[in-house]
Amino acid sequence: MSTWRDEKNLKARGRLEKRLTALFPPCVLAHALRQPLIPPTQRRAVESYWRHRPLLADRLARALAAKSGQPAGWEWRLGSGKETGLPLTFRMPPAPYREAAFARGPGHCCVCGQPVYRLGWHRDLWDDGKPNRNATWHAACVVAWQLWTVPPDHLRALKLRQNRKCATTGRRLLKTAEVDHRVPLFAVWSDHRAKPWPELLAYWGVPNLQVINKGAHLEKCADEAAERAARRSVVGQESSVEEMGP
After folding, report:
1. What domain of life (predicted)?
2. How far is CA 225 from CA 130, 133, 177, 232, in A?
3. What are the residues whose beta carbons fall under 8 Å from the beta carbon of 7, sequence distance 6 or more?
């Protein structure tokens, strides 16, 4: 088995180095050559680099979004399935540049709105000023979007960030530990949706993600359910008062 892997890596390294451009990011190359199976192409090396660094990808994607800023006239709203690009639920992160009305088209990332350069990179390392017209995602933004929408898939990285300690109890994280949003997403929709779009993304990203043991998570969910019920009760009472009139 080790002989097979050595032979495969030798061929993959040869393919990678043969096609390597002079300005290829050194950090990505170093990462690629450390992998058990060396990626044979530059693009796959870039994808592997970000896939192994989801927390860094999250930070970069939010920084790029802040650079783009919120499009004029955009507001966070939900769709019914007919509107192109609108999320169907508040659990999906708002993404104005995925909406048809604000999309910047090929060569720009549909997540952060910034230009996409060769190999899905976020900077013009080749200094030719030409975005990749065949791309609509940064390699980093792909991983960031996966973290925002399916955070349990990145449980290991989030555990390491907390030194394997439960964020609420401080005890050692168990195998059954779960990913949780510190500020629940229903509260983000109810209380914070008027915030600028780049700031909103932090509620789906690392600043609002924590890993807690299952027992603590169940207690937190019960408290949040009670809070939601109380909110509905208040809204129902206000509606009844309005219907009754003066």
Report:
1. Bacteria
2. 50, 46, 20, 11
3. none
